[in-house]
Specification:
Two copies of one chain form a homodimer. By secondary structure, chain A is an alpha+beta fold. Helices cover 46% and strands 25% of the residues of chain A. Chain A has a domain at 3-114: Jelly Rolls. The structure holds a DNA duplex.
DNA sequence: CTATTCTTTTGACATAAATCAAAAACCAAT
DNA sequence: ATTGGTTTTTGATTTATGTCAAAAGAATAG
């Protein structure tokens, strides 16, 4: 998914506005297993994933990685709380699959937000979309059996199972990889 | 928490702007156990809770109520997906404790969003704040023991336990009320 | 192509929390 | 106060999922 098309699909920017906005982003190719941000750092970039796959995760006290979210093509990826509030990130951001991203830093995007009312509108729309997805995940995870949770995941992230490891998916779903492996057998 | 103070604490509206915005809200007193919206209806109002307590919940297939979120003083309450996307609500909204709210409908708030850039900014800020809270809940719930989840709840909603029933809290936390009762014993 | 490392599967067993059932405590209305 | 209804607590039992351990299977690098 191309950034320009994505933006236009949500808000009708004028050609010159669009150009101005796009010029604030920097296109980058990122290798597999790259860490974009580590826990404790302040996340200063927002990434639009054109292709590839990323995830956010954190470490439990016992050192286990817990996947928080997956970011595929056409999604904005960042450590939300850190990026927007300037606080140290609670999460790691990692690229799982060679990716092409458009990145923009906090200063620039804040300029865009104050320069263009439409941009602020876009930001609100995207936040709300993400909010409903996260709420959706809670419902799936909180009161469903391990099997139902897996089914939820297939809806939210179709064919993710061919792209990321069992362990990453299991921790996203709040179960052990052994359990997930047993569910898949059926 | 007063709506006017609340708005000013986040965005510096001019007196006339503020007045215009406040005039779009309607102050209402709402009785305990009032249902603001039922599942399946489209939620057309957004409520700012000045005092009292509300919750959102849904019914599982077996008919059990699952509390989704609590809304105390100084919070905006609505069925987010329904209100913003105009879809049938997945949740019920209920007032648990006699409340004073300021309500505004979708049409009016959209007018405010397009009229005032600052308003759109406010909307984005509030969405992001809610998003980080919801993410926070996932972390608390997904990988912690029942006892740790209860402790998370006391941080997010201090003294909620004196205000709402055990069953409502238990379902919010993803456990049975028996389990919660046993945790509290200690 | 082979060796090394990482990932997934399988098995046996342990455990936190759910379920079912009933008693106790608390409230509200007559 | 007495009744009826709801909410909370307690006990006994079941169950889904976790833990630990090891084997099987893939992937990656030399």
């Amino acid at each position: 998914m191309d950034l320009s098309d994505f933006l236009l699909s949500l808000v009708s920017f004028e050609p010159n506005e669009l150009e101005d906005i796009l010029s604030c982003f920097e296109k980058k190719k990122i290798k597999k297993n790259t860490m974009l941000i580590a826990e404790g750092e302040v996340c200063r970039e927002l990434y639009f994933v054109e292709s590839g796959m990323g995830r956010s995760y954190y470490l439990k006290e016992d050192g286990k990685e817990i996947t928080q979210w997956f970011f595929g093509s056409g999604k904005f990826m960042t450590s939300v709380d850190s990026f927007f509030q300037g606080r140290p990130s609670l999460y790691y951001l990692e690229i799982l699959e060679e990716a092409v991203v458009y990145s923009i830093n906090k200063t620039k995007i804040d300029e865009l937000f104050s320069k263009y009312h439409k941009m602020e509108h876009l930001g609100r729309q995207l936040s709300i979309e993400m909010l409903t997805k996260v709420v959706n995940k809670i419902n799936a995870i909180q009161f469903q059996t391990a099997k139902e949770r897996y089914e939820y995941m297939l809806e939210e992230f179709p064919n993710i199972s061919q792209r990321v490891s069992l362990g990453h998916i299991a921790s996203y779903l709040g179960m052990t990889q052994e359990t997930l492996s047993r569910i898949r057998r059926r």
